Sequence to fold (899 residues):
Amino acid sequence: MALLELAGITVRFGGVVAISRFDLRVDAGALVAMIGPNGAGKTTGFNVITGVCAPTEGSVSFDGERIDGLSAHEVCRRGIARTFQNIRLFRSLTALENVLAAGVGARRDGQADVLRGAGWQRREDADAAAARELLRRLGLERFADARADALPYGEQRRLEIARALATRPRLLLLDEPAAGMNPSEKEALRALIVQLHRDFELSIVLIDHDIPFVMNLCERVSVLDHGEKIAEGPPEQVRRDPRVIEAYLGTDAEPAAARE
Amino acid sequence: MKRAARGAVVLAAAVVVLGLVDAVLPRLLNTYYLTILARIAVAVLAAVSLQLVNGFTGQFSIGHAGFMAVGAYTGAALSVYTGAPLLAALQQFMPAALARALYFPFPLLAGGIAASFAGLLVGIPALRLRGDYLAIATLGFGEIIRIAILNIDAVGGARGFSLSVQSGVELRYESLGAIAGVVALSVAVIARLVYSAGGLAFRAVREDETAAEAMGIATTRVKSEAFAVASFFAGVAGALFAHAEGYVHTNSFTFVRSFEIMAFVVLGGLGSLTGAALAAAVLTAAPELLRGFGEWRMVLYSLLIITTMLVRPQGLLGSRELSLALLRRALARRAPGP
Amino acid sequence: MEQFLQQLLNGIAWGSIYALIALGYTMVYGVLKLINFAHGDVYMVGAMSGYYAAHSLGIAAAEPSLAGLFAVLLVSMTACAALGAVIERVAYRPLRTAPRLASLITAIGVSLLLENGGQLLFGADPKFFPPLVNPRELVRIGALAVSNIQLIVFATAMLLMVGLELVVMRTRFGRAMRAVSVDAPAAALMGVPVDRVISGTFVLGSALAAAAGILVGLSNPKIDPLMGLLPGLKAFVAAVLGGIGSIPGAMVGGLLLGVVETFVSAYLSSTYRDAIAFVILIAILLYRPTGLFGTGQVEKV
Fold:
């Protein structure tokens, strides 16, 4: 049974078509990738799934229920979390606070319980302990009390993942998690993703430019170009697809750090 | 259990201290200084409550005086129209001082509640706006509230609204201990709100609204909450002001007053409750302390604002809180190490 | 009908003063994204310096003439241009890289300084602006009258606005100003002297505010150090109404606000006159936050 299903998604901004009739199916427990050249519509796909932008046409279902039209925080509370391609941490909060804020946001609505007594404090301590544990599992415990924007670049990317995990998602969307990393960092990230996928019983969709990175990691790959899906399937099959090769001609010449 | 016991002790100690303050201060200082101390307390509460919106939630509101006005007039109207007969009746059964102490929280609560409703009423449409546009809208709402009150005859209109009534009941409440107690309690509630894990939602919204929303934080709701809570305490501050002064006029709540409160917040340091309180206290006292300079005092006051901002653009305390640990560290840095 | 037209004329004259002040707000917001709350007080300084210029140059005592008015305008605009440049240099430039709210607070500080300094320097009591022009009726149709003062106010304002439009659209400085308002760092990289452009923007805006101060002195001669407070705020509303950052927007917004205010006080109640500006403000913010001429920006995720 599909955990996430996008059917006939079209997004238009004014006259520009960002994505056209895009279908995507992610089974529970899957680890899949969306790849494609700059401007192919990958991030727009994420934005549609997470409620950041509403699709012009088409539907998004999660766990059998329609979620298009929900606001982003509602989508998150249903169990979809994401990272951002241009890191969007809560910059002046500490790493621990970043994780705590996400956990609290996903579970509670109001702040009214602040007025309560002892139970409040116990909950407060439990939240902090859980957040520290999460940081430890991502190897960030020594940064717990450092400001997020003071972390090294790679650690910031990992903190974004930790923050997303704090919302206890069933589906994790990673938007170019490897961008700007050197080969050894990428290898560490690959191992981390595999481990998280297993330990947290997650389904993961990730976006990247780096074809070899994706090929070594994912079971299935969707390829977008100019807002349309041009290929889908296991990495080996997609890699040989003539349309994919054509779409990527010239793209390889671009600098590795190029962003959408 | 231990925690509850400690809480009771702290509470009892606070009551004793405030009682002492109440008994001793009027003997030491003349009415002029007492009035200034009361004004400082009101300014501190106004600044700390605005800090929740501006410094912690990152929303830019400059209409705070409007909500103070709602609180001040609601509290004053309650006292004049129902409080006075009520107090007159109560004083038949108990000493006047006790009756007044029992009655005093009600106008404050009423002022706070009315102001928080006004805050929600303003906040829900206005919070769709971002940044400067929100600021401009709150400024406009503040002025509309003020002009609307100016046109309500039941609360005196342009004549102002006096709390002195004929029935032999004193509605003015200038007890410094009570005022300080209310302000301290309010500040404590705000502090607990922003420094709890739940309160991280406010700061998350300030840091990055899109990311906060993606992490499951209902940003619009959080913003409305910040707005309502801040307005509530602005209303309490307003009602406090009305009862301490015994007279209110809309001229006390113009946009100039709103600017002043915002200056407290930014000069103290965005995101620092103690900073806002400190700046509010210093800047409220400054014009009085500068009285020796005669007609130059307001010029010096403006220069004080400008130079402080130029010298410390991040505010007096930045986003840190003044605490004993911070003081100790600062002193340790000064003192040569062993 | 005649009364309606008369109010319309009064409103346009009053609105052109708002428009002149609004231009300064909008230009500064354009280049710095700063709400320059001291701008209304620059307008006050404009009126005050006009008052003193007229007296010290002997124009107030002489027979009213357009040449005299022109001289007063010139002196006062020059004085305020210099004041604007100084304010920018001393109070805003050091905070260019600081958090944006910091310069907003210095703006409020400068505003307080000009008001309190004005009370110290000029005295808190109102002064009466010398009649630089003999009031005369130019046209009369039934009850409808157009005075020469209304015409002078309107014509001067229009002339200045057209002049500004030419500066902004046709000169190198204007092009630089537009570049800075779109993207200051990029403009700097392209060799635009950003500091000079910002300084020039304050000079232009303050000179226009001074002109507004003189024109208001002609039609409402009572001037005092706090006169800039409310008109300043309302001119700012006018700038938002037109779309903050947009020069034609400020003109239209100013005129519109002047007309609406005049009608409200003529037909509804003068006590609500001050509220109407803010009601319009809220309405426009909720339905079209970028104003009549503004353009929105979409945040990229």
Q: What stands out?
A: The first helix of chain C runs from residue 2 to 32. Strands of chain C lie at 127-128, 137-141, 144-147, 222-223.
